[in-house]
């Protein structure tokens, strides 16, 4: 006959299985969690550990650790450490009761399962990839059950300055670019020529066509027809330059090994524009 262990609903004991779900590289960051005995026999033999599991330190560490596992699966850039406690997604990642329930439901790993293990069984550290896949399923299921989908879309489309730590990170740079391009009433319009020419590249050394190049590309219809001839990747390069990304950032976002490859593509785009301009009789 199986034994059912019962604990108060808000008891930290219910989060003990999550501690044994943490991969070694993650649990090693938390002094209390990394000292947990790896068997139920050793855990039960020490009254000290009963007090530790009920302590605020245990609760704080397991909450931080599980939030680190959960956050990446919401589909937002960077790590949870790049966001402040004001961010709705940061707060959701700390909804520990939901993640404990989800792991028990999806992974069949809860308090009852843990306490039924043989007393001398040494609980191994899990495979990080398997943990990642489990948490991905848990987060997806929780989002669906809680109806968070529409809210997450709004948060993704309308981030706030208070959501981000004041660090020089890529996620904050992306946010600031979007913020000032979409919310400012004084957005600067960048011409195709300004987009393609750069002081740090050799693009500006290419010969310009006769006449004023800027005036030749002012026609919106003409520009749009030219852009339609570009490949998807060249178009992405052009748009990122318009948005103010550096050549290094463009290379990183589009998977180029070095920014020199982006320079070459920009040179090719400009040459193509000159040829297109001539063929169009402009």
Radius of gyration: 27 Å
Q: Unreliable stretches, pLDDT < 50, 5 or more residues? A: 1-5, 184-189, 199-218
H/I helix tally: 18
> Based on DSSP secondary structure assignment, what is the total number of beta strands?
0
Fraction in helix: 55-70%
The average pLDDT is 82
Describe the sheet with the most strands. none
The shape is elongated
- Structural class, by secondary structure, is mainly alpha
Strand content of the residues, in percent? Answer: under 5%
- In N-to-C order, the SSE pattern is HHHHHHHHHHHHHHHHHH
Distance from N terminus to C terminus (CA atoms, Å) equals 87 Å
Total domain modules: 2
Gist of the model:
With 282 residues, this protein is mainly α. Helices cover 56% and strands 0% of the residues. The chain is elongated, with a radius of gyration of 27 Å.
Characterise this structure.
The chain has 282 residues and is mainly α. The chain folds into two domains: 12-177, no CATH class; 192-279, Arc Repressor Mutant, subunit A (Orthogonal Bundle). It is 56% helix and 0% strand.
List keywords for this structure.
single chain, 282 residues, mainly alpha, Arc Repressor Mutant, subunit A, 2 domains, 56% helix, 0% strand, elongated, disordered N terminus
